Amino acid sequence: MEANSLLGLNDDHVVALNEPGHRLHPDAKVAFMAMQAAAARAGFNLQPASSYRNFNRQLAIWNAKYEGLRPVLDASSQPLDTLSLTPSQRIDAILHWSALPGTSRHHWGSDVDVYDPTLLPASTKLALEPWEYEADGYFYPLSLWLNANMARFGFYLPFANANGGVAIEPWHLSYRPVAEMCAGQLTPALVAEALSGQQINGKAHILKQLDEIFTRFISHATIDHPIIPYTNIAATKE
Q1: Among candidate residues 16, 38, 40, the one with its CA nearest the CA of residue 29
Q2: Rounded Cα distance, 236 and 33, in Å
Q3: How far apart are CA 101 and CA 94, in angstroms?
Q4: Helix, strand or coil for residue 149?
Q5: Interval 54-76: pLDDT, tens
Q6: Which of 15, 35, 194, 224 has the greatest CB tally within 10 Å of its CB?
Q7: Is pTM, for the whole model, over 0.85?
Q8: Measured between alpha carbons, how far is 82 from 220 in angstroms, rounded to an integer?
């Protein structure tokens, strides 16, 4: 993938989904729509909560969290007082739930956060927190179906386990053929070059510890990427 697309700095590599405001890589779109159809036959309304996200959107999220203008949660999903933390602690706390601009898997068009709006109780706002997808959570039935079926469509959960970096995200699906290609191309040097000209909070500390950030939060070695059989789904019926 071309560098600016990899970093979320252009969107030439994504196309619109049927759901307004959502986009994915063309190959991921075909697979996602096939999985949606299979989910519908099983009684689920599989919908994207977030799909392609560009660099500027990720930058706005990052800066707001760094400044304490947007909530940052700890490992137990409890609010943190980010302004009381050192810059390095603040960076780590944000990275537990949110990607560094230029490194988000959502930049690639391969990744999508999903939910079923029909399972969300009336007047309840989607939180995208693990408890919603765990036993007794609203979306637990959907999680069970995804765990049993998503591999057939080329999807997997890159943040299925607590690896000491990114939090468990049972809503975050990755289309493996595109995601693994992009993960293999992303490097600290490429991200450092992209960040150097940006107004990103904590920049000096980020650049100083970028290799460590890659090791803990971004490296392909720290992300779950099971070797699973799948059919490239364009022609599948189920």
Answers
A1: 16
A2: 11
A3: 12
A4: helix
A5: 999 999 999 999 999 999 988 88
A6: 35
A7: yes
A8: 28
